């Protein structure tokens, strides 16, 4: 697969998920928006387009290039083991998701990283558009780390493709403002991350926000003691203290937020 085909694939997954979960939100919404959904989407999709163009310029084909290099030269842990191919793909996805959990945790506990990550958390409502509301600085650091991890584990293109696709769809689902059936969420909680779990993570309360770091799998929170379940969903207020003025959460404000006054 060429870099351009990889970009087309990711864009197809992104757009398909965006439309699918938007339609579900409109059909079975969890709660009514407290601010204009149209304005929020303009901001969230605006920063998404800006980030996509910048990342395409900076990291054009980098992940696939590194993946092809380690596979061709038999580098990385997976290329030194006799595991069957399907198992290597599974290990790649699980390993990268675990390291993503660690990275997410660091974004909350390291002040420098939180400066960038709070852009994501200042969204006043949660819906599928929140899934890509990130500052370019955070994406630049995370992509750089991912390149090193792909090299270290020796991930080939299929493992990377499955991980990237799963990551996009999981993030869109867990941010969606849709009312999922209670029985489904109870089952989904055991291994994956439903909207109710991630909604707690977006709470304005710091002791609730600093939990539930999982993206694809919820098992890391369960195993490492950061899982929070028993929270009244109806009382969760989304956002970050000190950032409740909708007029100060425009695209321009989000781009300079990491360099402005620090807010915990």
TrEMBL record:
Pfam short name (any one): FA_hydroxylase
A single Gene Ontology CC annotation of this entry is:
membrane
**Gene Ontology molecular function terms on file:** iron ion binding; oxidoreductase activity
Query: Which named protein is this?
Result: Fatty acid hydroxylase domain-containing protein
What InterPro entries does the database record attribute to this sequence? Answer: Fatty_acid_hydroxylase, Sterol_Desaturase_Related
**Where found?**
Membrane
UniProt keyword list: Membrane, Transmembrane, Transmembrane helix
| Stretches assigned to the Fatty acid hydroxylase domain | 89-226
What biological process terms from GO does the record include?
A: lipid biosynthetic process
- Taxonomic lineage: Bacteria, Pseudomonadati, Thermodesulfobacteriota, Desulfarculia, Desulfarculales
TM helices/strands, residue ranges: 6-29, 41-65, 85-106, 149-171
Major subcellular site: membrane
